[in-house]
Amino acid sequence: MAIERTLSIVKPDAVRKNHIGGVLAKLEGAGLTIIGAKLIKLSQEQAGAFYGVHRERSFFQELVDFMTSGPIMVQVLEGENAILRNREVMGATDPAKAEAGTIRAEYGADIGENAVHGSDAPDTARTEIAFFFAESELQSR
Ligand code: CDP
Ligand code: MG
After folding, report:
1. Ligand nearest 59 Cα, by number?
2. Which helix (H) or strand (E) holds 39?
3. Is the dihedral of CA 35, 82, 73, 67 positive or negative?
4. Is 117 in the pocket of ligand 1 (CB under 6 A)?
5. CA-CA distances (angstroms) from residue 15 to 31, 57, 67, 135, 136?
6. How many CB atoms lie under 10 A from the CB of residue 77?
7. Is the Cα dihedral 77, 82, 85, 91 positive or negative?
8. How far apart are CA 48 and CA 37, in angstroms?
């Protein structure tokens, strides 16, 4: 199996509810290593650019408004099969459909306010990591 890196975000809903620690504990518990992290607040422009792939979707503006509604915690995760592993521990996009024990089942409210983001493939992981982090801010180990 390959060692991969992926981008993870604790979204504003989970930050507001003081669940940063709970989310990060589940990520680390899944065997993922945090190699970079920061607490930031996105502008509308940044959130729109980050979710540009969804620009034509009906929920786009709602998503941008939500993602700019408060601080987010962004982190880079590293580990074997990290991209898929992170998606597994996140659970389904709709928390009501997420498997028990997953982050979204535990901390998500609905399909919009679903606690976390995670890259979905190697190319998006690379782009999304570079969106937030310089290589010098990552401590591989
Ligand atoms: O986050 P994930 O990759 O699981 O799902 P997505 O299909 O890439 O959608 C990105 C984000 O848009 C979701 O995590 C939700 O926050 C939001 N969304 C929404 O508000 N309403 C939908 N019907 C679908 C997604
Ligand atoms: Mg996605």
Report:
1. 1
2. strand 33-40
3. positive
4. yes
5. 22, 25, 11, 25, 26
6. 29
7. positive
8. 21
How far apart, in whole angstroms, are the C-alpha atoms of residue 53 and residue 90? 20
Question: Whole-prediction pTM value?
Answer: 0.98
Separation CA 102–CA 95 (nearest Å):
9
CA dist., res. 114 & res. 93, Å (int): 7
The residue type of 38 is K
Residue 57 CA to residue 20 CA, distance in Å, equals: 28
> Mind listing the pLDDT tens digit for each residue in 87-122?
999 999 999 999 999 999 999 999 999 999 999 999
Task: Quote the ligand 2 centre to 94 CA distance (angstroms).
Answer: 12
pLDDT of 64-83, one tens digit each?
Answer: 999 999 999 999 999 999 99
Is any atom of ligand 1 closer than 6 Å to the C-beta of 8? no
- What is the torsion angle, in degrees rounded to the nearest 10, for the CA atoms of residue 54, residue 12, residue 6 and residue 39? 130
Tokens of 101: 């024990």
111 Cβ below 6 A of ligand 1: yes
* 4 within 8 A of 122, measured Cβ to Cβ: yes
